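Sorry to interrupt, but I need a hand with the structure work. Could you write out one complete protein record for me, on any chain you like? Could you add the entry underneath, on a fresh line?
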Amino acid sequence: MTEALLLTIAEAARAMSCSTRLVEKLIASGDLRSLRLSRRARRVPRAAIVDYIESRLDSTSTDPVTTAKIASALNKHATARGWTPRRSKKEARTSGTPSKQG
């Protein structure tokens, strides 16, 4: 299975070990690049996450080896944790499993 080049906000947050709200704030501030695919759909390129992490590191550690390590860790994280979306309330009702009432 090949790695997706573009991540959803939730997938980007999971890859960066932070909240979706923080990813949205980073995008709004211009610190994290993203693409708007439609009015509601936004994606974050994997390369943008690596670039953001590099920009946050000390300038002495942004060598090609560090970049390769970051990219490798990001890929391992994505493959190790298979992301599955939450079930909708309707799906939960039909499967017999109670859903959270929010």
